[in-house]
Design brief:
Helices cover 66% and strands 7% of the residues. It is mainly alpha-helical and 354 residues long.
């Protein structure tokens, strides 16, 4: 039997064995002491804690419920010790000793760079985006110049109208690289302590250099296009939301009319359901099942797409897992209900006025 400790790491709760917590606390304190005097040290620590949290989540995904000493040691081995962090001043003065030292230093740097390489992951790049960062993210992933990808997209626009929908689909499906760890994975680098420190410093340097005329023009164009897309999505989303609410209200009124008045009619721009009195059902309830199943079968995916698009644009918080599971189960049940009511009960009755 072991004592466990509950900790909050990057806004995530973990249960950690007492001995593992002691090691993790000492490790984080050593990192904090190392970075506390550096500019942007707190930002580096936040990114390091975020990466450690991601690694813990991966290990809990294997069915574990408690972080043990073994997992903590594995994470520390991946992240690296504070004394392994490269000092730019030391690396700049070391080659002056002799030629042999210079060659050995190059060999060491090469081996370090190779060890810092990892499998690339596809993310949208928020730092170099014009619209959603799709082109920049794909450029990192495939090793292609971002400008070339953007030129191809612009050339395909008048030739292939579906390219707009493909871009929007990629915008929805590809996650955005929000943390420094994700940005390193996007470039194919392992998110170690040293790499996170270097990435934060490079990001600050890039911000200070991005005041040129060309960058200002690109960023201004991107802001205009993003504002235009937001306006279009808000208009389309509003129309879809009004249509869904109207259809839902119509279904509810019609079903209530069927139960309490003995008659019900559901009319849409495409077809009418329940075209008459209660005798149309002839003692069957399949039309009620069909109507509700039809509404949820098409309504839930439409809501999911709309929620994903607007959430990506306005950075909404993710829905709870319980709500996602509920909607998924409801959609599966609706799909089954639509299939059963359409192909088993309804073929012998002229219930739809198409």
């Amino acid at each position: 039997m072991k004592k466990t400790v509950t900790v909050n790491l990057d806004k995530t709760i973990f249960n950690i064995d007492d001995d593992a917590y002691t090691v993790l606390e000492s490790y984080l304190e050593a990192l904090h002491d190392h970075f506390k005097k550096e500019e942007g040290g707190q930002e580096i620590m936040n990114d390091i804690e975020s990466r450690i949290s991601e690694l813990f989540k991966e290990r809990l995904g294997f069915g574990m419920q408690v972080i043990t000493l073994q997992e903590v040691n594995e994470v520390i081995a991946i992240m690296g010790q504070p004394d392994e962090i490269e000092n730019p001043l030391d690396s700049g003065t070391a080659p002056d000793n002799n030629a042999d030292g210079d060659n050995s230093g190059q060999t060491t740097d090469t081996s370090n760079n190779e060890s810092h390489k990892s499998t690339k992951r596809l993310y949208r790049d928020p730092d170099n985006r014009i619209l959603g960062g799709v082109a920049s993210g794909m450029g990192y992933y495939f090793g292609i110049d971002t400008v070339a990808i953007r030129v191809i997209m612009v050339l395909l626009l008048p030739l292939w109208a579906s390219s707009v929908w493909i871009y929007l689909l990629l915008w929805i499906c590809i996650p955005e690289a929000r943390t420094t760890s994700q940005k390193l994975e996007m470039r194919g680098e392992t998110p170690t302590v040293d790499n996170i420190k270097r990435a934060v410093e490079e990001e600050k340097e890039n911000v200070s250099r991005n005041g040129g005329v060309a960058n200002s023009i690109w960023r201004s164009m991107g802001s205009i296009f993003r504002g235009l897309f937001k306006f279009i999505f808000i208009c389309i989303g509003g129309l879809i939301a009004i249509s869904i609410i109207g259809a839902l209200v119509t279904c509810i009124i019609s079903i209530l009319g069927f139960f309490f008045l003995g008659t019900a009619t559901i009319t849409t721009p495409f077809f009418s359901i329940f075209p008459g009195g209660m005798h149309v059902l002839n003692g069957h309830w399949e039309l009620v099942v069909f109507t509700l199943s039809l509404f949820f079968t098409f309504g839930i995916p439409l809501y999911a797409i709309l929620r994903a698009v607007l959430g990506s644009i306005f950075h909404w918080k993710a829905q709870s897992s319980a709500l996602n599971i509920f909607l998924l189960v409801l959609w599966i049940l609706s799909l089954v209900g639509l299939f059963v009511s359409t192909f088993i009960y309804m073929p012998e009755y002229p219930l739809l006025n198409l």
